[in-house]
Structures are given as structure tokens and as C-alpha cells.
């Protein structure tokens, strides 16, 4: 059975690019435009990994990760932050919230897929 990855980004074109890369590698993809929408889509679904932007309207990525980690069913879901933010302080804030990896845009799909394969829950 294919693993499911949620892509959370306010840019539809970026969600599409990431989605194509993930689908071509055999993953199922669920998309959300911001952290609030992502939380509402999670429910009891088995999500193997989340790729999330930092800067989004309504709920930013770091707040989303904090909220996600409060949920028993998603507490251990790995999160890769995919963002234009490259400052160490932001990275530390993301790691403190529970993000497992940090990929800076623009990104190479093979770099993202490598991180996904390493972190994706069974």
C-alpha cells in the first residue's frame, strides 16, 4: 500500500511540483493551503509524513507543527519544513516545534525525495 504524504503550502504551484515529485515516486498525496486546513484534513487518516512551508496565512508552519504534535494520533508523524527561510534561528524554532528536516526553496526534487525516504514512517 502506498504511503501518504501531506503537502502544506499556500502556493498552489509549489504543492503541484512537490505533489508530482512524490506521486512519481509512488506516494499518495494530500494537499492543504495552510496549517488550519491541514489540521482539519488530518482527522484519523494515517499520514506517513508531512512536507510543510513556514510562511503561510491563517496558521504558519511552525504553529502547525506544534499543534500537530499535540495530537496523539500524529505525535510521531515526521515533518519536513520546505521553505525560503534559511536563518538558523528559524531552523531551531522549527526543530523545537518538532520538525525533523529543513529543505530550503528553491529545492531539487531528488533532495526532497531523499529526505522523504529517510523519514517516512512505515
From TrEMBL:
Keyword Phosphoprotein: yes
Oxidoreductase keyword on record: no
Taxonomy, superkingdom: Bacteria
BP GO terms, sorted: phosphorelay signal transduction system
Pfam families: Response_reg
InterPro entries: Bact_response_regulator (IPR050595), CheY-like_superfamily (IPR011006), Sig_transdc_resp-reg_receiver (IPR001789)
Keywords, comma-separated and alphabetical: Phosphoprotein
Coiled-coil annotated spans: none
Domain Response regulatory as annotated: residue spans: 4-120
Positions bearing 4-aspartylphosphate: 53
Protein name, UniProt field: Response regulator
Organism of provenance: Pseudoduganella aquatica
